[in-house]
Design goal:
Layout: H1 3-16, H2 21-36, H3 46-53, H4 57-63, H5 65-89, H6 95-118, H7 121-133, H8 143-164
The structure holds zinc ion.
Amino acid sequence: MILIPHILLGALIGLIAPHQYWIVFIFAFASHFLLDAIPHYEYKIQLLKERSEERMGVLNIFRDKQAFFVLGKIATDFLLGMLIAIALVWFSPARQYVLVVALSAVLPDGLLALYWMTKTPLLEKLARFHHFVHPKNNKNTPLLWGITTQLIVSLIVILLILCYR
Ligand SMILES: [Zn+2]
C-alpha cells in the first residue's frame, strides 16, 4: 500500500495498545504486512528500485529526474500521512509515542529500500516475506479497486482514531 494507510494504522495501534513499546512495535510492524496483503494500487517504484540496485548512490538519484520524481511522490505520501496523523492525535497526551509507533508501521518499506540499496543478506528474508505477503497479481488490481481499498482502510482507521484519541 502507499504509506498513508500504514502510518494511520500505526498511529491507531499506538493509541489503543498498552504502552509497552516492544509489543506495540511488533504489532505496528506486523500491521504493515497485513495491509500489504490486501489488493491495492501502488505507484511505480521500479525505477527507484533499479537505481538503488545499480548502487547509484543517493546523490545520483537526485540527479536522475525520473528517479527524483518517484522519490518526490514517496516523500509527499510520507509527509501527508504524518501530517494527518499529527493532526489527529495532536491533543492526545501520548502524541509523541503514537507518532513513533506510526513510524514503526512504515519501517518495513524503509527496510525494503535499504535492502535494494545494499543487498545485505540480513534483510533478504524480510524483503522476500514482504514480496510474499502481497496478493499474487497485485499489479493487475484494477486502479479503481486498488485505490478504493486504501481509501476504505484509511477512513475506517481515521474514524477509529477519532473515537479513541
Ligand atoms: Zn510494504
